Amino acid sequence: MKIVEYELRRIHLPLVRPFRTSFGTQSEREVLLVKVTTEDGVIGWAECVAMSAPLYSPEYVSGCLEMMRTFLIPALNKATEISAAEVGQILKPFLGAQMAKAALETAVLDAELKIAGISLANYLGANKTKVPCGVSVGIAPSIEALVDEVTSYVEAGYKRIKLKIEPGWDITPVRKIRELFPDKPLQVDANQAYSRTDFKHLKQLDEFNLLLIEQPLEEHDILGHAQLAEIMTTPICLDESIISLHSAQDALELKATSVINIKPGRVGGYLESARIHNYCLEKSIPVWCGGMLETGIGRAANLALAALPGFTLPGDTSASSRFFKKDITTPFEMIDGHLEVPNGVGIGVSPDIEYMNSITKSVEIFTGK
Ligand code: NPG
């Protein structure tokens, strides 16, 4: 396949409510969209999940733009013909940049699957047509506000609740939600907010029958996670630490994690995500699909991934309305606690061009050979 044009577009979407985590508060979502056009005029879309600032991971929107424009797109342009499966190899010499690489690979894959006439879900090996929805709940201004927010999600039908925690906002809010919803699948996410001196404190979370605790310690602290896993009964699930199949295999082998959150952007794309899934399925390690406040473009592709057989826990695959009043695609609506997996060709969705244009801050176009 020959790509004749790459378009990098930065858009800004307001969030329905601020989303606070231990690494900061988001009030709007800045998104970098990638569009590729093949020589036959087939278009592929993808979303780069990097945030505006490097607070969750080292990548950020302007950095990804710079990385793509200076290194990644020129490297792809050197190859006359490319397939999605080759993108990772071509971009391998450039270190890191998983989110930027993932977006380019996904846009190429979307175009390729459109030409082949199959959906991403089929291509990846999905065996479900709908997936259960989990929801991620930010750190709230008060316990009352948290209760209101969680109650609204439970009433809407969400199958699993994830509470963001940090020192000073952990045992009390988790206890409150557990008391109110004793049977609801519940998990917590610390986004690296604790350290090895907090083990005794974190152990108190064991009494709440949580599905898992996500990334309690710093991303490089694999040993610390293994030590914590030894003393907690709550399963540890790594997120930020897992940036590839290799890192997933090592963390599992070292018993630093017993569940894996697969986020395609964080691991370099859907092809690497599928490899992690396949490895975990073989080893009977549960996986679930993480979320990064994606628009419908990224959400559609995540749903395809979450439909694979090893995704046995509900993911952060929420309805579009959880984050956006108006999405750039037809919104994903939750029915009976589930989202339908797109079955159109490629990622199965495309943006509403008029709306997308109205929230566009910049567009750069690179012509292929
Ligand atoms: O449902 O899209 C969603 C959000 C899920 O909490 C969520 N994502 O650490 O997993 C995370 C967190 C996140 C949010 C990460 C923003 C990075 C940026």
From TrEMBL:
Enzyme nomenclature, EC number: 4.2.1.113
GO biological processes: menaquinone biosynthetic process
InterPro entries (UniProt xref): Enolase-like_C_sf, Enolase-like_N, Enolase_C-like, Mandelate_racemase_C, Mandelate_racemase_N_dom, OSBS/NAAAR
SMART domains recorded: MR_MLE (SM00922)
Keyword field contains Repressor: no
Top class in the EC scheme: lyase
Keyword Magnesium: yes
Residues forming coiled coils: none
Domain Mandelate racemase/muconate lactonizing enzyme C-terminal: 143-235
Keywords: Lyase, Magnesium, Metal-binding
GO terms assigned for molecular function: metal ion binding; O-succinylbenzoate synthase activity; racemase and epimerase activity
A matching Pfam family: MR_MLE_C
Cofactors, names only: a divalent metal cation
Protein name: o-succinylbenzoate synthase
Lineage of the organism: unclassified sequences, metagenomes, ecological metagenomes
